[in-house]
Amino acid sequence: MRALVLRGFGDAAVEEVPDPVPGPGEAVVDVSCVQPSVTECMLLAGEPIAMHTVLAARLEAGPTRFGGHEFAGVISAVGPDSGDLAVGDRVTAVETAPCGRCAACRRARPDACPSPAVLGFTGPGAFAERVLVPARTVVRVPDGVSASHAAAVQPLAGAIHGHALANVKPGDTVLILGAGVMGVLHTQVARLGNAGLIIVTGRSAAKRDLAKHSGADLVLDVGRDDVHAAVMEATDGIGADVVFECAGEFTQAARCVRRGGTIVMVSVLPDHHPAPLALMRERSVLLVHPRSGAGGYAPGSTVFEHALRLVQRGDVDVQGLISHRLRGVAALPEALEITRHKSRYGTLGPAQVDLFDWGTRA
Ligand SMILES: [Zn+2]
Predict the structure, then answer these.
(1) How far is the CA of 114 from the centre of ligand 1 (A)?
(2) Distance between CA 252 and CA 249 in Å, rounded?
């Protein structure tokens, strides 16, 4: 099969690689649609964010495969002991699989597993025609949800996870800094949940429009509006109860949160990003870091299934984030380029790659 192979930072090409063969408890999924995450694009380009040193060490040892955890496809082979999965099932998969053997896993705390397998990160992912996944991570895609939408559900599961962690109380004012993919998904999830006033900030007019359509009550232009003043005015001077920081604007988050409020760090920041610690101490801020993606709810996959049902019912719209769809596995490098420079290419979400139409599979 063909797959994306990384020979160095910024040097990825589609090459012929061996087909995956399912062992016990594993399934092979023919990839129908896949999209890169911004984090993957940053890592593939060599940016010094979390996981960089791990990937650098792997590249020292030779060409490697990296990335591809937001995908949907059709099962083409199953190994022994893979439960009720069957060839032809339309599926996606939770990206994180706790080891099941360590002290944390044995104590029923798989979220604390120090060495989970992460699709595309600890092993080959879905930047390929076929992907090997643990059967226990597979989630069936409900009828009526397209491969394109199913591939876009993984960040939604992350937004649901972050929202749950924030413990938004009925009527709470929620401030979402940044109207990119995570900001827009957080807006929709907040609207479905307990949030009262929802304030969203955005840089581009297109992003602000999408935030408005996603349920924001007040949309601020970071290039023109005084965000802090506007938040204080909208909250009678106390600040937002919960801030979802989705734009790398940590200091703004600390200024805009109320005393005793919560900041949820959605952004993936460099190791030594400036942080206004004195201000956070003075405000008694609760700072929480949700796990990325759908992880943390394993071994069940309830959050992922919930996210797919939200899309199936039309409660959450992921279509608004999908503007660029490319065709064929060879388009993977182009999808990475577009997703890494989204504003240059005029897209809000990642560029998707369609490998085959799963409607044509019996
Ligand atoms: Zn473990």
Answers:
(1) 6
(2) 5
